[in-house]
TrEMBL record:
This is LTD domain-containing protein. Residues 174-238, 701-720 are annotated as: Disordered. The lineage of its organism: Bacteria, Bacillati, Actinomycetota, Actinomycetes, Micrococcales. InterPro entries: CBM5/12 (IPR003610), CBM_sf_5/12 (IPR036573), Endo/exonu/phosph_ase_sf (IPR036691), Endo/exonuclease/phosphatase (IPR005135), ExeM-like (IPR047971), Lamin_tail_dom (IPR001322), Lamin_tail_dom_sf (IPR036415). Pfam families: CBM_5_12, Exo_endo_phos, LTD. It comes from Zhihengliuella halotolerans. One of its GO terms (molecular function) is hydrolase activity, hydrolyzing O-glycosyl compounds.
Length: 963
């Protein structure tokens, strides 16, 4: 395994404060052989050169030759294809030169800016001709200088392909894509983890905060460098007897690197299973509230001997002092471990304040620790895969009331001093609670039969939950970050080694927001009634799948051409729909804007098919016809995405005014979903209760473009396509301004998934235009890379904001473990699925309350005036009754025509059969589903009618009981 030479991740914090990183020395060569004929493999890829936090100014790819023969690269090339590309790669760099046996070869690429140190002299300088995305894509080492025609999916064994690195959400890879950096501002590189090419990118490459470019002139090992523990020659001669603190030294690296040592200690944790293959020891009697300049604990790598020891044993260890990915350890693979009979003073867990600085944590590396103070769950995304729980210590000193790790651009403008300081503080407050193993519960089929650590269906570990440590843990460093390890491997939620308990922060409903009408926004996570199986079997498409542990498809991975993005089949769709329905019906909203719902027109169906399907499911769940959807307008964009936005509403609370409108004439939305607008009015309110809602789904932050459009990720934390989102915000403001006049209201709400955190540039456009963000400062709708923030917003114009009575985010999705999502059904032996609201999506819904009093409730409608002009939705009083205008009218007296412009409101009557209901009136319009009272009996409308009295045997009304 590669050994890295940068100091601990204080480098990240330093980079955020504009401190340059020092170029590392050459790395040790990986061991093993490649699976392909030529043997040369991609060994490291650094894809964020020049960005904020970057270690180096330029991107690079490092090759390695694990064979004992030189390999000529003449006629070879390095090629790059975007994550969604299906044609020949658009990036190609011709290679020339030779890679020596056991040697490296460095290819430098493009740059995103001026941050970072200069690369070592590269063997080939590709420059801007090789400029891959920092977060997803496919890099191909080709045995030809001709652009390859590559299939999608796993491409093992393709002709003229020497090696492939697919990373992030890409469509081309070996077996499965490698985990990618979160974006250009993430300074990690992709490193070949074990030096052996197993033809599985996800297993072969790991993210590392230590970046080690090595050219053909920079290969070789340095004293103390090691690959996999146990690799290399064991030092000869007698071992020197030392204390553990002498092995650790007072710096980040052992001063005895490469020396044979003998030491004694008490076993504090042991891991004979799970992949750690070793145990921790600590000097007897140390710990407690002690101060120290060097740690008194150390990890012993002893895969064949670890089963011979147990926690609390007093042991003597002989081995080689080494650094393994910046963890000081004793490698006892060729050494000895003896359990001693003599007594030893017990080890005491460390207590005291949690150290923020790496230099302070280093003093306690590998020691037993009893965490105290306030700890919170900050991240649970990796719990489903690696059994990890991200923890956060205390509250932020920079963001009042914030217990979690905020996205810097959610609380401060991009590039500001505060944003930089928040990023640094986030690193200081975070640590990972591990499970005592390196097990991958997603890709290791055997592991899927073992219960996930810490988690069960009844006690979810939610982001924001309080963590209380009930047992000590060991302070460990691995995979580029500080970790708490339990004293033995944890499997399942009730394992005796579980060192912490977690509070249950679930709620059954959002916080009360008040108001007469409640408006919400909900991203429904690719709700597609058109399943992948239907697309393949009936529509002639093709799909790849994400599968469960039995290999059965659960969700679509990729369906071509432009196919569905949701459930694989009807069974999995039913699971998805049940959770979404439960969430929306418990939300308490009267109007809900929807994002990521299927645009059914893409599959030759009515555009509203999916919307109607969801509405019917909501009503079936309630056992009533409470919900309706806003139909698509007549005028639609010429070219739409396969996902769309929409509105649903409760008929008893509001009524739509006029037809909905989509912005169809703006180039700003050529890469996003066009805004959809609809005016609503309180069901029993006058025109003063009217408001305009516009739902949005802006361009996402991924798919970093390299086309010179100005949309590349600049590294300031806002992601790719920021300029596009700014343009979309500007177009939306103009669209809303025009609709205010057309819909005769100043009350405008902008809702949806803006793919922009609260203080980013697109949001500033709205604030400058007079819109207020109605979300609470310490609430969030999204979790990404352990950081929380809001991509989903409800904004109000000045007039709209004046009517808002409260706002809330219902944290049912982003805070929940992904294991509970329908898409992870049967991924593990533990069944986490439930048809409840929790983890119905990956975004949390937001909701606001709006004042909209009924007519006559202190805001009575104005008297009808013959000379006045009225528009659809206007309400007047006349002859002791209330009337709603159905369309534009002037001079027509309300009630004078049965089929005229005015519909009389029926008074509210008490009825034993149905509760309160409106009296039937001859001029009202009924669409089906409404309940009325007529001549002492209740009736329900079966279909559209007007001026047809209830009671006829064959008419539009069904009896509903006597009053």
């Amino acid at each position: 395994m590669r050994t890295h030479h940068l100091a601990r991740p204080t480098a990240l914090a330093a980079a955020l404060l504009a401190t340059a990183l020092v170029a590392p020395a050459a790395a040790a060569a990986p061991v093993g052989t490649a699976d392909d004929g030529a043997g040369v493999v991609i060994n490291e890829a650094y894809l964020s050169g020049g960005s904020a936090n970057a270690a180096y100014t330029h991107k690079f790819v490092e090759l390695f030759n694990p064979t004992d023969e030189a390999v000529s690269l003449d006629g070879w090339s390095l090629q790059y294809r975007s994550a969604t590309g299906e044609s020949t790669p658009h990036g190609l760099t011709e290679l020339t030169g030779t890679v020596a046996p056991g040697g490296h070869f460095l290819i430098s690429g493009g740059s995103n800016g001026d941050n970072g140190a200069d690369l070592p002299t590269a063997d080939v300088v590709a420059g801007g001709g090789f400029n891959p995305s920092g977060s997803r894509g496919t890099i191909v080492l080709a045995e030809t200088d001709t652009r390859l025609s590559l299939p999608t999916g796993s491409i093992i064994g393709v002709e003229n392909v020497a090696d492939v690195l697919g990373y992030g959400a890409t469509n081309t890879y070996e077996t499965a894509p490698a985990t990618a950096p979160s974006g250009n501002s993430d300074p990690k590189s992709l490193n070949r983890a074990e030096g052996v090419d197993t033809d599985d990118n996800s297993a072969d490459f790991k993210l590392s905060g230590s970046v080690t470019p090595t050219s053909s002139t920079g290969a070789g090992e340095e004293p103390g460098d090691g690959g996999e523990p146990g690799d290399g020659e064991e030092p000869s001669g007698p071992a020197v007897e030392v204390e553990i603190a002498e092995i650790q030294g007072e710096g980040a690296r052992t001063p005895l690197a490469g020396e044979r040592v003998k030491t004694r200690g008490v076993v504090t944790a042991a891991f004979p299973s799970g992949g750690l293959d070793g145990f921790f020891i600590q000097t007897p009697g140390t710990g407690g509230d002690m101060e120290s300049s060097a740690s008194h604990g150390v990890f012993v790598y002893a895969p064949t001997l670890v089963s011979e020891v147990a926690v609390d044993d007093y042991v003597e260890v002989t081995g080689t002092a080494t650094e393994y990915y910046d963890l000081t350890q004793v490698d006892a693979t060729s050494g000895a471990v003896s359990v001693l009979d003599e007594p030893a003073e017990a080890v005491k867990p460390l207590t005291g304040p949690w150290p923020a600085a790496d230099t302070e944590r280093e003093k306690f590396e590998s020691m037993l620790w009893q965490p105290e103070g306030d700890w919170y769950v900050g991240d649970n995304y990796s719990l489903n895969q690696y059994g990890e729980v991200g923890l956060v210590f205390g509250e932020s000193d920079l963001v009042a009331g914030e217990r979690l790790l905020p996205q810097p651009t959610d609380v401060a403008p991009a590039g500001s001093e505060l944003a930089t300081a928040v990023a640094v503080e986030n690193a200081q407050r975070s640590i990972t609670l591990d499970d005592g193993s390196t097990t991958d519960y997603v890709r290791n089929n055997a592991a899927k039969g073992s219960p996930l650590p810490y988690l069960d269906a009844d006690t979810p570990i939610r982001v924001g939950a309080e963590a209380t440590f009930t047992a000590p843990v060991v302070l460990h460093y691995g995979f580029g970050e500080w970790r708490f390890q339990p004293q033995e491997q944890v499997t399942g939620a009730d394992h005796p080694a579980v060192p912490a308990s977690f509070s249950d922060t679930r709620t059954k409903a959002p916080a009360e927001v008040g108001g007469d009408v409640k408006l919400a926004s909900f991203n429904v996570l690719n709700y597609f009634p058109t399943t992948g199986r239907e697309f393949v079997d009936e529509l002639g498409g093709n799909c790849s799948w994400y599968t469960d542990r039995d290999g059965a498809p659960v969700t679509t991975n990729r369906c071509n051409p432009n196919g569905p993005r949701g459930a694989a089949d009807t069974e999995n769709f039913a699971r998805q729909e049940a959770k979404i329905v439960a969430a929306i019906n418990a939300l308490g909203a009267d109007v809900v804007s929807l994002e990521e719902i299927e645009n059914s027109a893409a599959f030759g169906k009515d555009r509203d098919f999916a919307l109607a399907t969801l509405t019917a499911a909501l009503n079936e769940d309630l056992g009533s016809d409470a919900w309706a959807f806003v139909p698509s307008p007549a005028e639609l964009p010429a070219d739409e995405d396969v996902i769309r936005t929409a509105f649903i509403f409760k008929k008893a609370a509001v009524k739509p005014i006029d037809e909905s409108v989509i912005l169809t004439d703006s180039d700003a939305f050529s890469n996003a979903r066009e805004p959809l607008a609809q005016a609503f009015q309180a069901k029993h309110g006058n025109a003063d209760t009217r408001f305009l809602a516009i739902v949005n789904h802006f361009k996402s932050k991924g798919s970093d473009p390299k086309d010179g459009s100005g949309n590349a990720d600049s590294g300031d934390g806002q992601g790719a396509w920021n300029a596009a989102r700014v343009g979309q915000a500007e177009a939306l403001v103009a669209f809303a301004d025009g609709l205010k006049r057309e819909r005769n209201t100043e009350k405008v709400f902008l809702t949806g998934d803006f793919n922009s955190y609260t203080q980013e540039d697109p949001m500033q456009v709205f604030y400058e235009a007079g819109y207020a963000n109605l979300g609470a400062k310490t609430e969030h709708t999204y979790l990404f890379a352990g950081l929380v923030g809001s991509l989903d917003h409800i904004l109000g114009s000045e007039a709209a904001t004046a009517t808002v009575t409260g706002s809330a985010v219902w944290d049912i999705n982003a805070d929940e473990p992904i294991a509970l999502e329908y898409s992870r059904y049967n991924n593990n032996v533990t069944d986490f699925y439930a048809a409840d609201p929790y983890r119905a999506s990956d975004h949390d819904p937001a909701i606001v309350g709006i004042e909209a009093p009924a007519a006559g409730g202190g805001n009575s409608s104005a008297a009808w005036e013959k000379s006045a002009t009225y528009r659809a939705g206007d309400t007047v009083s006349h002859a002791g009754a209330e009337f709603d205008a159905l369309w534009w009218t002037r001079g027509e007296e309300p009630g004078s025509r049965a089929y005229g412009a005015w519909a009389e409101r029926g008074e509210s009557l008490a009825c034993a059969a149905v509760g309160d209901a409106s009296a039937w009136t001859s001029t009202a319009v009924y669409h089906g589903g409404e309940t009325v009272v007529f001549e002492g009996r209740a009736f329900e409308a079966k279909w559209y009618s007007r001026n047809q009295a209830p009671g006829g045997a064959w008419g539009p009304w069904a009896p509903a009981g006597d009053c």
